[in-house]
Amino acid sequence: xxxxxxIDGRSAxxxxxxxxxxxxxxxxxxxxxxxxxVGRFDELHALTDRCRDGHAGPADGPVAxxxxxxxxxxxxxVFAIGLNYADxxxxxxMATPPAPLTFTKFPSSIAGPTADVALSGAQVDWEVELxxxxxxxxxxxxxxxxxxxxxxxxxxxxxxxxxxQLTGVPPQFSLGKSFPAYGPIGPALVSVxxxxxxxxxxxWCDVGDERMQESRTDQLIFPVATLVAYLSSICPLEPGxxxxxxxxxxxGMGRGRFLAEGDVITSGAEGIGELRNRCTAGRGAxx
Length: 287
Ligand code: ZN
Hints:
Mean pLDDT: 97
Structural class: alpha+beta
Number of helices: 7
Number of domains: 2
Helix content: 10-25%
Low-confidence stretches: none
Distance between the termini: 47 Å
Radius of gyration: 18 Å
Shape: globular
Number of strands: 19
Bound molecules: zinc ion
CATH topology of the largest domain: Fumarylacetoacetate hydrolase, domain 2
Order of helices and strands: EEEHHHEEEHEEEEEEEHHEEEHEEE
CATH class of the largest domain: Alpha Beta
């Protein structure tokens, strides 16, 4: 197993809470770029073992206290799935879709796990989501083989400006979810073999001290393998592509409550870790 981090723009391995610079451990400068590391994820298992066995010299530092960047900082494509939990479709007043309802978060929205979120308006909402990271070129992958092209899993927030998203008919899902830092991910890219069952992972979201969302990914209407098979039947996938898999119930839109300046969003997933994002004052869209 491995946990891939990005620190100061460089790939690092998290080995039992200590981080090791990946290029140094591997003796290969090409692996300094986290995007290159994702495409060579197979090698990260053995390199993690090297660190753990003491063959990589001392760690570069403790993970606690390090400022982490997005583990996949420059995805070529970011897919996101709407209404993929039945309870969230119900709170949205929408029918569950017959095929994965797909939009994009434009890559400029991707940010690190502790990025500040400058609010674009008065109706900005939270959506905790499991995020799949593709690790191999994949076109028309059968569902039975889908996990073999996955480098690992991370956690994301699909932060959503409902005013922009729901302007007009049909709505503007992609733009409403693509302001800067509206896609924080992290804290680590975790290998699939680190999970007892990668199709059943607990995830949650708190705003301040209040638990807003709590579910498990076994509730996904279209699970990870189905999403990879479906998306790759249309779009060739590349290493570093992301799939935000959808959010469970408990979003602000269903509660009549939205994010305010000073709110801290804490998102968590079993076996992955937490994102902590503080909301700050920002600017809205030109309408
Ligand atoms: Zn979402």
